[in-house]
Structures are given as C-alpha cells and as structure tokens.
C-alpha cells in the first residue's frame, strides 16, 4: 500500500450520505483494493443479508452460560441494540455503508480486504479491562436507554457526528466516562485497522472506516514506528491485579462453613441451624426467581440449588434457574433484532432474552439477600455468639 495512493473514508455507520459517499468514491477512483471495517463474521452476516437470507436459528443459552460468556453476549447484544435503534431512528440499516462498499466493489470486480479485529476479541478485551464502577455505569446507561430514562429530546443528526469538532467532543466524553472501554474500542482498533491497511500489498486502496477511527488511523500511518504488534492486540488477556471482590465473596461461604464447624466441635447442636440455613436459602432462591417472572419449574430449581451455591463460591443459583427458563423460552435471532424495536416495558417483558436474564438476576438477588442479610442475622451471628458465650 502506498500512503499517497490511500483514500480513507470516515463514515457514520447509519448514514445514507455515507453510503452514497462510499459508492461514489469507489466508482470514481476504481482502486486496486477496497478495505472495509469488518471482520469475517460480520462480513458473512452482511453478505447473507444482501442475499435476502434470514437467520433465525436458535441461540444456545446453555452454551453461553457454560462457557462463561454471559457478559460477552450481553455486551454484544446491547451494542447491536443501540446501533439498530439509531438506524431505526434515521431509517438506515446499520452497516449500510459497508454493504454499499461491497456492492460497488463486486460490481467493478475489485478485491475486498477485511481489516477489523474479530468482534468477540474486542469485546472480551474491553470487559477484561473494565473495573467494577465502569461496568456499573455501563449497565445503568444501557438500562436507562432501553427504558427511555435518558434524555433524547434532540433529534439525531448523524452527519453532524462526522464533523471533526463534534467527533472530538464525543470521543473525549467517551474517554472520560469509560477510559478502559475507550482504550479497547477506539485506540486499540485505530492501531489494528492501521496495521491491517499497511499489510495490503496493492498500491491504490480505499479504506472505509467509522469516522471516529479516521484520525487515529492517520496518526499511525504517518508514524508507523508507533504501531504496536498486531498479534498482541489479538490476545485475550485475563484481568491483572488482585480480584478483591471475588476474594471477599469467596470468603463469605468459607466463613459460614467455619462457624458451623466451630459450633459442632464446641458441642453445640447445629441441626436446627442447618435446617434454617437450607430452608431460608431455598425460600429466597424461589422467591427471587418467581418475582422475576420465571416459570414455576425454574423457581423450584433455583430454590433447590440455592443452599449449594451459597457454599460453593463458583456457582450461582441464577445460572440454574436461568438454564431451566431457557428450556421453556427458546431464544432466537429475532429476539435480538426485536431489541431495536422496544419502546415500552411491555415490549421488554415479551422479549425472551430479557426474561431469561431477568430470571438469572432475580434468583441471584434473592440468594444474595439470604447470604448477606437473613442468614447472618438468623443463623450465623446467633451461632457465633453461642460459640464465644456471648
């Protein structure tokens, strides 16, 4: 790739003007290669969409939970929801400018280069870097947007977002609100996209990327010595540092077990305390699940496993009730697509993805209340006082 022969088109991903701009540039310049901001998976989906192939296969919630990819699935789904929502507001489907680039390239028989990092790698790296407060703010922002709590009185002007001054302000706000996410979604991908463009062997290239990435890509292309190793940007590293929250949560069930053993070895009859522990745990697991709108079968499962999951820090009762709920509420691709059309609590309530996740969360909240409030006050503190004669 020759730098002087490279044209970078910064687009808004849900903009009709961007679609026309991309097509016009390709037809006028007739480049050797068109590089587009897509990975193989998203490219395949867009191609199927172009051919009118509707995907509605079942989604394995069981596999998502077993592979510990709940956070990844939620993040991917909700980001897709936001883009679809904006697209619906401006009557342009997300990815239309990429489809325009593909159509023009195929029409002129120009090769296409896929230059983006695999989406799951990007999202997993972002989740691994996020701290607790960032995740809390992110979750609140998603909930507020879905339920309509955020202020959206101003009509969306997508083309204004491509204005460099407005774009800089938007990026700075994003950087301040979620620096870890900004690092992965913006800065890292600027480097990755620039590196992939530099690997293209042909001379004359048109690169179609989001407008927010264009300044960063150009900086790396102008200063290639600052470009990091692309293989390092494809690794999914575990979070560094001491996971204090996980340690504290793991200590709670250990403390419960220690108190039971101390009471037993001090000759205290703990039979009724054990019964109380089991009954309270089961009741709270059942209540948490049923109040979240689960099937009775899911609530029973959540209640039955609650005592075990309290003692075992790596298990959560909500996983079991959620898996049971998933057997009765089959999640399909249409459930994901319908997230973009949610306008009320009723719409949200009728979406199977939301209902299953709500059961998971509700069951876990019920068991957490039992673990942190009811069991200490009703079982463990009285036992502790007996052990030390208080």
Describe it:
- The structure is a single chain.
- With 390 residues, this protein is mainly α.
- The protein has two domains: 3-234, no CATH class; 244-387, no CATH class.
- The protein is built from 18 helices and four strands.
- The chain has helices at residues 16-29, 40-50, 61-66, 70-90, 96-107, 119-129, 132-147, 158-161, 164-177, 179-198, 214-222, 244-265, 271-291, 296-311, 317-328, 333-338, 345-349, 352-387; strands at residues 6-11, 33-36, 112-114, 205-210.
- A four-stranded parallel sheet has the order 1-4-2-3, covered by helices on one side.
- Helix 4 (70-90) crosses helix 6 and helix 6 (119-129) packs antiparallel against helix 10.
- The chain is elongated.
- Mean pLDDT is 80; it is low at 86-92 and 152-170.
- What percent of residues are in strands? under 5%
Task: Report the major sheet.
Answer: 4 strands, parallel
List the domain count as a whole number. Answer: 2
Q: What is the radius of gyration?
A: 26 Å
Strand order of the largest sheet: 1-4-2-3
First-last Cα distance: 79 Å
Query: Helix/strand/pairing class, anyone?
Result: mainly alpha
Helix content: 55-70%
Shape: elongated
In short:
By secondary structure, the chain is mainly alpha-helical.
Protein topology:
Elements: E1 6-11, H1 16-29, E2 33-36, H2 40-50, H3 61-66, H4 70-90, H5 96-107, E3 112-114, H6 119-129, H7 132-147, H8 158-161, H9 164-177, H10 179-198, E4 205-210, H11 214-222, H12 244-265, H13 271-291, H14 296-311, H15 317-328, H16 333-338, H17 345-349, H18 352-387
Parallel strand pairs: 1-4, 2-3, 2-4
Helix pairs in contact: 1-5, 4-6, 6-10, 9-10, 10-11, 12-18, 13-14, 13-18, 14-15, 14-18, 15-18
